[in-house]
Amino acid sequence: MLGVDTARHSGWSAWARGRLIERGEVDTLNAQAVREVVAQVVSGAAQLELPAVIVLEKPWGPRSDIVAALGQARERWLVQWRELAVGHRARVVLVMPSTWRAAVLGGSFAGAPRDEARAAEQAFARALLGVDSIGPDEAPAVAIGYWASRAGKVGEALSKTSQRASLQAWTKGA
Q1: Whole-structure pTM over 0.85, yes or no?
Q2: Beta partners for residue 16, in sequence order
Q3: Structural domain contains residue 173
Q4: What total number of domains does the chain contain?
Q5: Which of 11, 16, 148, 156 is least buried, going by the fewest C-beta atoms within 10 A?
Q6: Residues 148 and 1 sit within 8 Å (Cβ to Cβ)
Q7: Tens-digit pLDDT profile for residues 55-96
Q8: Strands (DSSP E) along the chain, which ranges?
Q9: How far is 154 from 54, CA to CA, in rounded Å?
Q10: Could you tell me the CA-to-CA distances from 91 to 84, 85, 87 in Å, in that order?
Q11: How many other C-beta atoms are found inside a 10 Å radius of the C-beta of residue 126?
């Protein structure tokens, strides 16, 4: 599963069986860099015989230009996903920041000001990973991936066969 904090400079996190595999940040204007991240996740899922899922933040914001820019960044991820994941559109999950923030950081962060939410994302990711520092876009991607690896909404995007395979993999990998 690939969790993405969608922006021009996107954070991403790769997860399998509820565990973080890798994380990073990428400039989405660099199509090759985005492609490499997507290829790595799709290949890893295939090797583990798990369904490949991408979870992206829904574009949102107080201004239409921000929403448009976020939508463009999301599309850059989806272009690579459609090509490399053989078009599994049903395996694309969009999530509002308020949804994953409330579940991961606590309900008070669902509508928290950006600075407060970013600080909480940083604290969560550093604690989860046991590191002293993490990239500003990487931290929310780790939190999104953490949410997604446990979210019923992600499970609903899978076929019944994929749900069973993923559950079996989860229990074997635990």
Answers
A1: yes
A2: 19
A3: no
A4: 1
A5: 156
A6: yes
A7: 998 876 666 767 777 878 999 999 999 889 865 555 899 999
A8: 2-5, 9-16, 19-27, 54-57, 92-95
A9: 9
A10: 12, 9, 9
A11: 15
